[in-house]
Write a structure and sequence with these properties.
Layout lengths: L7 H9 L3 H14 L6 H13 L3 H4 L2 H8 L20 H8 L19 H13 L3 H14 L5 H13 L3 H7 L5 H14 L6 H15 L8 H18 L3 H9 L2 H9 L8 H14 L5 H5 L1
Helix pairs in contact: 2-3, 2-7, 3-8, 7-8, 7-10, 8-11, 11-13, 12-13, 13-16, 15-16
Length: about 300
């Protein structure tokens, strides 16, 4: 577990170690099957997999980039981004959202397991069943890592979480836990998921009222709570930017007074939370059909 957080070279060596990832997945599967998701060894295994999934998209070997991972025929030939997973324009990102991954292998090996639907379902199962905060946070964090990039893998993982594995209810529960790091990671994961335009209505229907309910009445004092608040605002921005319906849902759940209060907090004029709330307000005002409702 300590070695897996040693940096890019350490992650690379551990991903390449024959049988290591398979053994970790095998152990966690056994713990879940035996109804023992709360033991320390399971926590250690999940934390290792969490670390090995960090920066996975950018650190994958070129062989995966060309043969397993990206179907590049849908990407325009004038895309000059170096490598396969660099920063991309919005136009190319949107193409990625519709680019299917090659068909999943029924028996993935090694690094292939890290983004396979089997492991995604394991993480969601641990989020639902474990009561250990570190296990919950690592499971959420692994999914956050896997959905963080702009290539087809993050969007495919997001679709699996939201639509194929029905993972939003388990993630939603984590918004209401008292442990601040678990809540922050759950919100960060939802922020990543909400970037996928094809999933935004599904996510909003399931979790938008909960996001509003956990927003504080003003900018919170602690750094971690401030970051969480900023992430909630950016998630709501993603969900409402292109949907007047979702903006109306935010309005009906009394989110607007909270967002205004956060944006106008005098003592934290330059805080992340205040900036994020201001960006959200500016976006909400673009829905001209809601102006009368806003004024009321």
């Amino acid at each position: 577990r300590n070695m897996s957080s040693a940096g890019p070279e350490g992650r690379k060596k551990m991903r390449e170690c024959d049988g290591l990832i398979d053994s970790l997945v095998y152990y966690i599967q056994g713990a879940i099957a035996d109804h023992e998701p709360n033991d320390k060894a399971t926590e250690n295994c999940v934390c290792i997999l969490h670390n090995l999934s960090y920066q996975l998209e950018t650190e994958l070997p070129e062989t995966y980039a060309q043969t397993i991972y990206v179907q590049r025929r849908n990407i325009s030939s004038d895309d000059k981004t170096p490598g396969c997973f660099g920063t991309r324009s919005r136009k190319v990102k949107e193409k990625h959202q519709d680019t299917p991954l090659p068909e999943e292998k029924s028996s993935p090996k090694g690094v292939e397991s890290l983004w396979h639907s089997t492991l995604i379902r394991i993480y969601l199962s641990l989020i639902a069943k474990s009561i250990r905060n570190y296990t919950q946070e690592a499971s959420l964090g692994a999914l956050q890592n896997l959905t963080a990039g702009t290539g087809p893998m993050p969007f495919s993982v997001a679709r699996t979480v939201v639509q194929k594995a029905n993972g939003i209810p388990s993630i939603r529960t984590m918004l209401h836990v008292s442990h601040p790091a678990v809540k922050k990671t759950a919100v960060s994961l939802l922020r990543n998921l909400s970037r996928n335009t094809s999933l935004q209505n599904d996510i909003a229907r399931e979790v938008l009222p909960d996001l509003v309910s956990v927003l504080p009445e003003s900018v919170p004092g602690s750094d971690i709570a401030c970051e969480t608040t900023a992430s909630i605002c950016y998630t709501l921005y993603n969900l409402t930017q292109s949907s007047s319906h979702n903006a109306r849902l935010l309005l009906s759940t009394d989110g607007l007074p909270k967002i205004i209060a956060i944006s106008m907090n005098d003592s934290n004029m330059f805080s992340k939370a205040s900036r994020a709330a201001s960006v959200l307000l500016y976006s909400l005002w673009s829905h001209t059909d809601l102006h009368n409702a806003y004024k009321k």
